[in-house]
Amino acid sequence: MVSFQKNLGPLTLAFLAAILLLPAIILGGGGRIMALTEIENTGGKEVGGSKTNTELMLVVYNEKEEKLEEMSLENYLIGVLAAEVPAHFGKEALKAQAVAARTYTLKKSALLGGEGCEKHGVVADICTDSTHCQAWLKEEEVKEKWPAEAAEQYYAKLKEAVQETAGEVLIYEGQLINAVYHANCGGHTEDAENVWVGEHSCLRGIECPYCQDSPVYSMETVFSVAEFAALFQAYPEALPVFSSSLPNLELLSFTSSGRVGKIRVGRKEYRGTDFRQLTGLPSTYFTWRLDKGKIVFENRGKGHGVGLCQYGAQGMAEQGFNYEEILTYYYQGVELSSFYEIKGSIE
């Protein structure tokens, strides 16, 4: 999952506070209809000293089926957890993921003043493209990918993680944060400024000794000369990518976490993030070597490296940390709060 949105300002929150009080039908961008509906909720979670039965409805673009779907935020989050993290993860790691995904979704949502998602030619709050928003799967899809004997148990486990954190979000200086996350940081998370433009005070790189026991902590990616050169055919200044037996690659800078900041291919310079996207490497945390005429990239971690390290969260959960401790470790200076308490504080 990727992307950043504009800050959710006080005026937007004030507007939200007003509409949360009553059932409403709200016209979203591009003329779409978005619903904020009162629902029956006999098992409501206590937030701010009282139970809430107000449920936020999202318009989600289902990339696989190429259509818009309306669903409740909390039901949507179950599908996000099913797609984004292994179901065998510990309960506290799953709860941390639920809070991060909820915060990211609310920050992104066009209903709440975020930029929404228009990548696919329609207006939605969010889409199911993991490279643009967040991955998401339907209940029947996730149960098909799990062993039949464990499917019901796994789904109930994810649902419980969402329900037990219902309404909980991450706040920094009174604002919802862009709670981005990734699979594995390779031992150190990344400063957001090294990946996206702008200042992101709560997304600072930190050491992470918790993710080493992971299948994606260390990986190799191998290219033949022809395969690697083909990636740069559209960029003549990067060719030839090989000179005699040596690749025309030069590391120009590293980020504070040790990832590749800039790299030169031939005569062309690339940001590490752009080079990763072009080559399909798991992360910008890499070195390379030649081996029998092939170029071998040795990668650490998987993903952009910013925010929550999912396998790190699992490692922390295994060591006895709870979900709040996990979240405040990876998101620096944040507070865990109820979305409905934020609403109440500005009424």
Concise description?
The chain is of the alpha+beta class and 347 residues long.
Description:
The structure is a single chain. By secondary structure, the chain is an alpha+beta fold. It folds into two domains: 10-177 and 335-345, no CATH class; 218-300, no CATH class. 29% of the residues lie in helices and 24% in strands. It has helices at residues 10-19, 73-84, 91-108, 139-145, 148-163, 225-230, 272-279, 310-318, 323-330, 339-345, and strands spanning 24-27, 33-38, 46-47, 50-51, 54-62, 67-72, 126-127, 168-172, 175-176, 181-182, 218-223, 242-243, 246-247, 249-254, 260-265, 268-271, 286-291, 294-300, 308-309, 335-338. The strands form seven sheets. Strands 1, 2, 5, 6 and 7 form a five-stranded mixed sheet that branches. Helix 2 (73-84) packs across helix 5 and helix 4 crosses helix 5. The two termini are 33 Å apart. The model is unreliable at 3-53 (pLDDT under 50).
In DSSP terms, counting alpha (H) and pi (I) runs of 4 or more, how many helices?
A: 10
Name the poorly predicted regions: 3-53
Q: Main β-sheet, in a few words?
A: 5 strands, mixed
Strand content: 15-25%
Overall residue-averaged pLDDT value: 82
Cα distance spanning the termini? 33 Å
Count of β-strands: 20
What proportion of the residues is helical, as a percent range?
A: 25-40%
Number of domains: 2
**Whole-number radius of gyration?**
22 Å
Strand/helix succession: HEEEEEEHHEHHEEEEHEEEEEHEEEHHEH
Query: What best-fitting shape do the alpha-carbon axes yield?
Result: globular
Structural class: alpha+beta
